[in-house]
Design brief:
Length: 224
């Protein structure tokens, strides 16, 4: 039996250096003085940050008031087989016929063969630099429609957003419970894999989003 590939970390570091979406608050770590705060020399930090900072996932509540929070979803929604789509060089992301066909593949029970979709643009190479939040690639309306039609659980991108103002892709995906993972990194490591296992577990909170530790690994053969 072939062995599973090693887990690959697809998350950016979460720290005071993590660039926030313009207008959001910076990460702030409050490190106590061990001698002053503890009788047993243990360390317990506090931090302040947006729930949408760094590599994160968000739920319908982010754009649709009164809808599901991130903690309302079963953990199965955050992990599973994923399709990696190479869309480098496109400003408005339109899928090829082969990519659309792969996205539409189903299991015998009619569920998606790959409930996760990872979109590789290589925009993560600009992380931390000027312009990361400007001019990034966005999903074409027909690509959004294809993702919804395929009934995927989540879509992950190595960009800060699947769209730009007026942000029409967000509500369309989220109202169909297609959760969105933003600010991934290193998706190029997964290119060429016939099957990929992906996971991005959030904290269990009644919030619109949460930071995640996103990981993936190559799986021998096709998705079961």
């Amino acid at each position: 039996m072939a062995e599973l590939g090693a887990w690959i970390d697809l998350s950016h570091e979460y720290s005071q250096h993590t660039p926030p979406w313009p207008g959001d608050r910076l990460f702030r770590l409050l490190t106590p003085d061990v001698a002053a705060e503890s009788d047993d020399n243990t360390i317990v930090e506090e931090f302040e940050a947006s729930t949408h900072l760094g590599t994160h996932i968000y739920a319908p509540l982010h754009f649709l008031p009164g809808q599901k929070a991130i903690g309302d979803f079963d953990v199965s929604h955050f992990a599973g087989a994923a399709l990696v789509l190479d869309v480098r060089g496109q400003q408005t992301i339109v899928l090829t016929d082969a990519q659309r066909a792969a996205l539409a593949e189903t299991r015998p029970d009619g569920t998606p063969r790959c409930p996760g979709v990872l979109i590789h643009t290589a925009w993560d190479e600009r992380w931390g630099g000027p312009g990361y939040f400007e001019g990034y690639p966005v999903l074409a309306p027909e690509t959004v429609a294809a993702l919804v039609a395929a009934r995927v659980h989540l879509v992950g991108l190595d960009t800060p957003s699947p769209d730009a103002a007026p942000f029409l892709a967000h509500p369309e995906l989220l109202r169909h419970d297609v959760l969105i993972v933003e600010n991934l990194r290193g998706l190029g490591c997964l290119l060429g894999a016939t099957s990929v296992e992906f996971a991005a577990f959030p904290l269990r909170m009644r919030c619109s989003g949460s930071p995640v530790r996103a990981v993936a690994r190559r799986v021998p053969g096709g998705a079961e």
